[in-house]
Design goal:
alpha/beta; 14% strand; binds adenosine-5'-triphosphate
Length: 216
């Protein structure tokens, strides 16, 4: 069977080293053939409406360009309407076929919110889910909403399970714990404070060039 392909969605507003380490460590820890980054289209405005989807995409392109195992899917940013993850996965299944294992990568905070996603139970027919530990967000059935805790307990698998089926399992993985969030980066940038060493220099150059995340 072909190596599983990781899929990593997010607003990446902006992309930072927490994201990059998650994707990099997922490849090593889960035996993925690569990770396809999927920046979301039109996020809810969260204090930085001046940053467009194209600009978030550009920052992801800049920060992933040097890694041959990373690729970027611009379809959600380029879509006219907001895309749901389940629709993106259906499209990818059409493209990739039914056999290759797909692994949706999420941080622990995003995983806990899964039951709010459109048709969330259908995601398990389309992909596995790999949950990265993130500072402040425990991954345990007891700390999840009950309907998700039930799926978690039933579907929890070890990493080897990702190769055995194209979809349907849940795995957790450890990664270097980095308490970096895009929210915090936007706050620092809005108040003129340094974000250096929290994200790639190429992303910082782009932010400075276009004066992104400055308070109006
Ligand atoms: P925001 O603060 O704007 O909500 P964020 O930093 O959480 O942003 P997103 O683009 O929302 O970034 O996250 C994309 C994915 O990356 C999510 O699954 C999220 O859980 C995960 N993620 C983001 N930062 C980290 C981190 N420091 N450690 C582990 N996972 C992370």
């Amino acid at each position: 069977m072909t190596e599983p392909l990781g899929l990593f969605g997010g607003t990446f507003d902006p992309v930072h080293f927490g994201h990059l380490r998650l994707a990099e460590e997922a490849i090593g820890n889960l035996g993925l053939g690569g990770v396809r980054w999927i920046p979301a289209g039109q996020p809810p405005h969260r204090g930085a409406p001046q940053v467009t989807g194209q600009q978030r995409l550009e920052m992801v392109l800049r920060s992933t360009a040097g890694n041959a195992r990373f690729s970027v899917d611009a379809s959600e940013v380029e879509a006219a309407a907001p895309s749901y993850t389940v629709h993106t996965l259906e499209r990818l299944r059409d493209e990739i076929g039914l056999d290759r294992p797909l692994v949706l990568l999420v941080g622990a905070d995003a995983f806990a919110g899964l039951p709010t996603w459109h048709r969330w139970r259908d995601l398990f027919d389309l992909a596995h889910i790999a949950v990265a530990q993130r500072p402040g967000f425990p991954v345990a059935a007891g700390s999840l909403p009950p309907e998700l805790a039930a799926e978690f307990t039933t579907r929890l698998s070890d990493t080897a399970g990702l190769q055995l089926a194209p979809a349907g399992g849940i795995v957790t993985f450890t990664m270097t714990q980095l308490a970096i969030s895009a929210t915090r980066l936007r706050e620092l940038l809005a108040t003129g404070k340094s974000v250096r060493y929290l994200l790639p220099d190429g992303v910082l150059d782009y932010i400075n060039l276009y004066q992104l995340y400055k308070s109006p």
